[in-house]
Amino acid sequence: MIVVEKLSKRYEGKRTVHALRDVSFTIGSGEMVATMGPSGSGKSTLLNILGGLDRPSDGSVRIGGVELGALDDDGLTRLRRGKIGFVFQFFNLLPTLTARENIALPCHLAGARRRDAQRRADELLALVGLAAREDHLPDELSGGEQQRVAMARALALNPPLLLADEPTGNLDSRNGDEILGLLKTLQKQFGTTVVMVTHDARAAAVCDRILTMRDGQLVEPSDAAASR
Known about the structure:
Layout: E1 2-11, E2 17-27, E3 32-36, H1 43-50, E4 58-63, E5 66-67, H2 73-83, E6 84-87, H3 99-109, H4 114-127, H5 143-154, E7 161-165, H6 173-190, E8 193-197, H7 201-205, E9 209-214, E10 217-223, H8 224-227
Helix pairs in contact: 3-4, 3-5, 5-6
C-alpha cells in the first residue's frame, strides 16, 4: 500500500530545519502501523506527506502504486478523496452540521446523490454505534462520540488507507480504548490499512508494527507485540 524511498523534508529560513532525513519503509495492504517518537521527531511531517498534504524535498512516496510526486495539486486532491481517509486529534467536525450531515459531506463533494450520501452516512453511523445520535450537532456529543463521527466521515468513500494523527490524544482512557477497538475492527473486517501517529503506548500496542522516529530519521522498526 505504501512505499517510501529516501524521503527527506527541509524547511528553509534563516537556518535550514531537517524535518525528515533519508526515510525509507514499506507498509503492506491491511497493516496497522504506529509511528512513535518525541515531539519534533518528524512524525506529523511524515503523515502529512503520506496524505499528500505536503511535498517532500527529496525522495518518493507511492500510495497504492501511485507516485505522489508525479501528481499536480488536482491529482493529489483526487487521490486523497478516493484513497485516503484522515482522522485528527481535534475531530475537525463542521459545527453547524449534524453527525449525519458531517459524515455525508464527503459523498456530496464527490458528486453522490443526496439519497445515496444519506444511506452511506446511516451505514457508518451504525458501524460506529451512533445511529441514535444522527441528528446531534458536534457540541451535543461527547469527545468520544465526536471522534467516532470523525472516523465515520473519514470512511465515507471507503478509502483503503486511513491516516490517524493522535486519534486518542484528546480522549480519556475509556473513549480512547473504544476508538482503538474500532480501528482494529476496520483493519480486520474491511482490510483497511491504518497508519497512526501516537504518543500513547496503549495505542501503539494494538498495531502490527511500530515505526520509531528520532531527529527526522527512522529507528529500526519493531513488532508491536515485543513492545507490550
